[in-house]
Amino acid sequence: MARLAVEIANGDEPGEERGEMLRQHGVAEPDAGALAVLVPALRAAVEAAVQGGPLEPVNVLLERYPPVIRVDGHDGPGTAHLHFAPNGEDPVTWLGRNCAAALAHVVCGDPAVTLGRCHAAGCGRFYVDDSRNRTRRFCSNACASRTTVAAYRARRKAAG
């Protein structure tokens, strides 16, 4: 869910993973106009999660989209897991509830999820750091390469 929150906060087009998740839970893809209501609060909450606080943006998201916690085993026997919104709910509300719960877990120190913000000049996109040692600094290989090349050129220029 944190990955989904980051995707929406970045303004990315819906990916295959998001589409599959929505289908599995009987939720339609929200139209851009409806989703626009969620984006500012979600973006502020993701930013807060990346920085490790303040907590207020996450709490605002939780107040607007309070999770409805229940246990579900829709994947078959032995696959019980938590759901934070009812299946088939309004898409924006469903996304809001799930993303709010995921970001609450992140700001409370969930060790399984680390969020970051790209260090490339002019980028600023958010990402989920799933690297082995949680030291990722860029949202993509393109940003990492662009930064490396810029640093190399700057060193060569300074050397004369």
What is the fold's blueprint, element by element?
Layout: H1 2-10, H2 16-24, H3 32-35, H4 39-51, H5 56-64, E1 70-72, E2 81-83, H6 91-107, E3 115-117, E4 126-128, H7 141-159
Antiparallel strand pairs: 1-2, 3-4
Total strands: 4
Helical percent range? 40-55%
Radius of gyration: 18 Å
By secondary-structure content and strand pairing, the structural class works out as: mainly alpha
Order of helices and strands: HHHHHEEHEEH
- Total individual domains: 2
> Could you give the distance between the termini?
49 Å
Main sheet characteristics: 2 strands, antiparallel
The coarse overall form would be: elongated
Uncertain spans, ≥5 residues at pLDDT below 50? none
Number of distinct helices: 7
- Overall pLDDT: 92
% residues in beta strands: 5-15%
Spatial order of strands in the largest sheet: 1-2
Describe the structure.
This protein is mainly alpha-helical and 160 residues long. It has two domains: 2-113, no CATH class; 114-160, no CATH class. The chain is built from seven helices and four strands. The protein has helices at residues 2-10, 16-24, 32-35, 39-51, 56-64, 91-107, 141-159, and strands at 70-72, 81-83, 115-117, 126-128. The strands form two sheets. Strands 1-2 form a two-stranded antiparallel sheet. α4 runs antiparallel to α5 and α5 packs antiparallel against α6. The chain is elongated and about 65 Å long. The N and C termini lie far apart (49 Å). The model has no long low-confidence stretch (mean pLDDT 92). Pfam families: zf-CGNR. It comes from Actinomadura verrucosospora. Residues 115-156 form the Zinc finger CGNR domain.
